[in-house]
Structures
1.
Amino acid sequence: MPATSREWHLVARPHGVPALADFALREIEVPEPGPGQILVRNLYLSVDPYMRGRMNDVKSYVPPFQLDRPMDGGAVGRVVASNAEGIAVGDHVLHGLGWREYALVGAAHAVKIDPAPAPLSTYLGVLGMPGLTAYAGLLRVAEFAEGDTVFVSGAAGAVGSQVGQIAKLKGAARVIGSAGSDEKVKLLVEEYGFDAAFNYKSGPVAEQLGQAAPDGIDVYFDNVGGDHLEAAISALNLHGRAALCGMIAQYNATEPPPGPRNLALAIGKRLTLRGFLVSDHHDLRPQFIEEVGGWIREGRLRYYETFVEGIENNVDAFLGMLRGDNIGKMVVTLPE
Ligand code: NAP
């Protein structure tokens, strides 16, 4: 076992798009596990959009990262030392202490995972938090019903690609997605089976959505906010529902963004616009694992992962994900 481990610290609060200088990779001594603790060699680290919010010193649903302290986030690793009942050396676990090579984890905060049915990295993506977000957000929050026309933004990402496919599998009349490149748009239609897709950088979202959904939409799954939300409010049919999952278009904003200018339409159309957090829907997890796991095994639900190698590239992977470099889930891989 090496004597030292590297971990990322936030050293300055970003203003706008984060810069490499806002982060520092620091070396610490590898600690020994105390009673009830395990030492984990991290193998896969998650980078997620919500982490951008944690870099700001504001009150939110998760506390901000502290300056000059290790950052954290979803991670999967192998147990290399254990002082906890029920978890043995060699077990694989999912836990919340990413952004580092070795993690000292309280056993109560680690979940044993099985590498046999699915690759370990999928516990951070299609079978993990983003997957459950898609499942709960579409089926419970947006109250999806067979025959609905569904629009999802951020459609080639971890959450969005799953939303569109679940809608198709559950009998949507039509599924439309938007993404930030022609390559992603092609993927949505040809690989994921969306009925229509458009590149939001190629023209106004409202116009492109109007062409893709001439009869309007019943459900909007919002990953982006801004002009996407405004276009969706205009396109939603009577009693339409929007699940407000994320608004990544404004995560790096330095000024408060304008609200949708057409919100008054929600009254006459009796729209439901409902925000949600995946953490409120963990009761759906067993059902989600069974149903989505089954679709993956049967080859009916596809997923992509974009891997970036090495702890030294953790920040690059995060910034790349915010820029749209990823197809599907962005994951950092560390050597065994
Ligand atoms: P992701 O979609 O895999 O990656 C982020 C994607 O956002 C990028 O690939 C990029 O794709 C897109 N993007 C970046 N800037 C954009 C902009 N200005 N306009 C439009 N698209 C932009 O990330 P994810 O993990 O699946 O998360 C998707 C959304 O769900 C995020 O908003 C996140 O905050 C939210 N989320 C919410 C919950 C919850 O509990 N509510 C849980 C998980 C995630 P393009 O190339 O298409 O631009």
Note: The chain has a mean pLDDT of 97.
2.
Amino acid sequence: MTSLAEQIRLLAGHIRAASRLTVLTGAGVSAASGVPTFRGPGGLWKDFRPEDLATPEAFERDPRLVWEWYDWRRQMVASCRPNRAHEILAAWSHRYPSFTLVTQNVDGLHERAGTREVVRFHGSIWEVSCWRRCAASPARWREETVPFPELPPPCPRCGGPVRPGVVWFGELIDPDILERARRAVDCDVCLAVGTSSVVYPAAALLDAARERGAFTAEINPEATPASASCDIALAAPAEEVLDRIEGLLDAEPLR
Ligand code: NAD
């Protein structure tokens, strides 16, 4: 079996040679910043599972409860900072002319690290939209109040509740975002970093990249359904693996 050091050298070689690099990220990238993942320790809030709160039905039933969870997450993320993994991906987004980062994360930490070309597959907790989709409101808008003085926060135009600007379980991905993500997987190297690879359609992107001829790699301390089908699976934390790859790329800069 190849050692982690050899895997890192191999992956660094592929990244160095790539003209088109795409990185797919999930909650694990933000774990070292202190943002809990959904699956794994700390994934629960009170006694609720994310799958039971992040749905239109849950919001319909109890908008205040759903907003208490999002308000708590917004407060937590506001006090977190991007970690080494975010910083390296941000640096790559400037270094590689053809780089795309497709993230399932809604925390905005990639943007705060200065990443260019972020495709927000599941939206952002820093945006909201009118739950009734009132005609006077834009489709969604940025809203950074933390914490909200009133839950659910009211729509400034119609006074009805607003909802978080994220894609909930059972909802469709914005077709433009889906199209951008599909274009991005047409690349030379595709990395899936810190995702459990169980939430579709995001989980299908790594396979799509491989089918189009990309070299595919997973970075995740735990095995996932993608581990067996990608070209290499590096079983270690994102912040460590990316830092070691960056060290090798630095030692022998891109031509
Ligand atoms: P997930 O919670 O299902 O899985 C997280 C994965 O990260 C796990 O496989 C875990 O082994 C791995 N992981 C933990 N620490 C890691 C580290 N240091 N380095 C690399 N990997 C690590 O997350 P997902 O696959 O993104 O789940 C899907 C849904 O969860 C998405 O819809 C996303 O919007 C939502 N989510 C987002 C955030 C966020 O924005 N930070 C947080 C929690 C969940």
Note: The chain has two domains: 1-34+82-122+173-255, 36-79+123-166.
